[in-house]
Predict the 3D structure of the following.
Amino acid sequence: MRSHVSGLGAWALAVMTAALSGCAIYRPKPLPSGPDLLGVAALHTPESRFGLPGLRPAPLDPAKGFTAVNLMELAVAGDPQLAAARARAGVAGAQLFAAGLLPDPQIAAGVSQGPAHVGYSVGLMEDVRALVTMHAARKAAAAHARQVNLQILWQEWQVAERARELFIEARAEQRLRAVLAPKLCLLTLLVARDQNELSRGNVAAGQVAAELADWNAAEKQWRALALKDNLIWHEIDGLLALRPGTRLRLRGGMGVRPLSARQFHAALGALPHRRPDLLALRAGYRSAEQKLRMQILRQFPMIGAGVHHGEAADDAVHTVGFAVTLTLPLFNRNRGAISIARASRKYLYQVYQSGVDGAENQADQLFDAEQIMARQMRAANKHLGQLLRTQRAAHASFERGGLDLAAYTMVVANVASARMQVITLRSSLAQARSALDMLLALPL
């Protein structure tokens, strides 16, 4: 009797040891104690090639300055929110791995002792329904993992696009300040001179008041540009995971190409099959379909099947049997889960249709806005050309003494305002074209 019981214990111990040998071990991972931000010296060209069409690692030389492409690739590599999103992709991968695992079997063992005999029994059971639904569960998990990866790709696209917009804004802000500074300097000199002349009665008070109004407007513009500069650079530092207050030297143009009407309509037609967020919605819909299929399979009776073996030690009676457990589908029949899965699929269908419709409307609106801004740009350039010719004549007259400081300052101020308008329009047009590239999922 003892030999049989000890044999059963040894067998059970061996099974338990084999099962536990592959178990995971918990290791704590404490949260960081502070920020993990970089300086300019730590920036380097990312080695990985991103999934963004057209964006490839470019040479990086901080001494020469950072181009728009440098800024985009560094943002995609360093943005902390993207790092968190990529970690989320690991969760989807783990779910896909879990969906492909076979359900663990159940083992039952027992020992019985009576007045005339001692015996033991061993049983092994497996959930058959889990095996039936495993294929659908794995396909649903695979579609979900693809959805997450596409969502991350779209987020990378948006981060790259935002970095390019910030580059355009920063370059425009630099040019605006360079144009505004001489205007503000001349106005300051004019106001100081005429305030002194006003005390002597040589200048009318109304003229000085008008000059002060112009100076205040220019000073307000200067302060607004300083505030915008602060916002732009803090956002750039955040995207690149740089220490706050870091300023990069920027170089190069805005690098955004215009689209013809033919190119726009061709890209618009291919939009549902190219834009990552719409492809992610399609993958999510496929996942929902597989989940519905899985829930429909689960409405059928829950089946458990297994074998059991028993033996009486004193009379050497051996028994072997087959056991089936069956859940009768009388009340529940998994109708609640099926209803939820159907409603989820319907919701995702509508979300996808809404996404396609909204994407086309947004792209068309932005393309029309780009055409309007392009016409405004041509008119502003024409007006600036006229003012520049006037300024050249005024400068020559001022040099000869035929034009006083007040009149010359007004001419220079008007030219500066026209230049700033052109710079602002060019920046807005470049940002609109850049945003249109993203909406149409065109190569960066």
Remarks:
- The beta strands are 106-113, 118-127, 303-312, 317-326.
- The CA atoms of residues 177 and 222 lie 7 Å apart.
- The chain has a mean pLDDT of 80.
- The domain at 47-104+133-303+335-439 is CATH 1.20.1600.10 (Outer membrane efflux proteins (OEP)).
